[in-house]
Amino acid sequence: MWLAREGGLREAYRLCMRQRPKGFLSAFLLFVFFIPQLYAQEFHLHVVVPDNLKGSLTLTLYDKTEPRNIKASGKQNCDFNGSVKGAAYAELRHSSIAQPLQFFIENSRINITFNRENPNASPVTGSRTNSLLRYQLEQCADNPTECLTRYVEEHPDDILASFILDQHLAPTLDFAMLDTLYKQLQGAATQSYHYKQLGKRLKCMATLAEGAPLPSFQFYDNNVKLIASDTVMRDSCYHLLLVGATWCEQCSRIVNELAKTFPDLQPLVINIDRQKMQWESKLVEILAVDHIPYLILLDPQKRIVARDFRIWELKRILDRETKR
């Protein structure tokens, strides 16, 4: 198991050559002996959960075509065991908390002390890739967009490049810049879960640009009743969609602010946590939403006027529309 931690396949070859075996067969057998050790590795993840946090933990790995879940053993001190090829993106979810802990897992011993207030602030030790990610985010804290963009440009074959581009840069970059950086990715970055997500995001952005008609969709309201979008947006006026969640305080503030400032433009609120599969639902793919709160303004013909804007920008957008 130690072999891959010391450099993987390349290290196995180097060690074989150091042994200077006599004859091709001896070298071949020595090399083949090391190969199973490379892939027989496993990770051991130990999670410490606060005593007053009740519920269960689920680890989701995104190292294959489809995400796979691993259940924990134990309650307050939970253990997960499995194997991955190289570094893999993972999410650790607690049943009582909506936000998951996002981190990178490797075939090593990893320890996490779960933070109930902010899961992504949970201390993680034992994962070199995760440590590199947190270091980079800290280094770019003062100017994240420019700094992280430079990192992606300088490390196009790094698995962290696709993660940073999808999770940290996509919400702030325009379509052209995002597409340019996406096309520059190569190697390990193109084999990652987030590279596939970026491809889907760009495809949706291309079809859901300003001026394009919004496709019809279905969603579950707060009473878990299935609603068709065409049945609630039938009149010939502007419509505002607010994608949020029942636990999102900022979403509630936006609704209250709209009631005061734009009483005739009440939003159609769609809560992600009321949808089946939540962020993996078809609705998220159709609307190309990747964070909350998320606003989409439609004209009377149900064409997209603006998307992913801030509440204080709404008056300027509407003024621009009335002058057309």
Summarize this entry quickly.
The chain is 38% helix and 20% strand.
Any overview of this molecule?
The structure is a single chain. The chain has 324 residues and is an alpha+beta fold. It folds into 4 domains: 2-39; 43-130, Immunoglobulin-like, CATH 2.60.40; 140-207, no CATH class; 218-322, Glutaredoxin. Helix content is 38%, strand content 20%. A hairpin with a 6-residue loop joins strand 2 and strand 3. Helix 7 runs antiparallel to helix 8. The model is unreliable at 1-13 and 29-40 (pLDDT under 50).
Mean pLDDT: 82
Helical coverage, percent range = 25-40%
Flag low-confidence runs. 1-13, 29-40
Query: Given the C-alpha coordinates, what overall shape results?
Result: globular
Spatial strand arrangement across the major sheet: 4-1-7-8
Individual helix count: 12
| Class computed from helices, strands and strand pairing | alpha+beta
Give the C-level CATH assignment of the largest domain.
Answer: Alpha Beta
Number of strands: 14
Report the sheet with the most strands, covering strand number, pairing sense and barrel closure: 4 strands, mixed
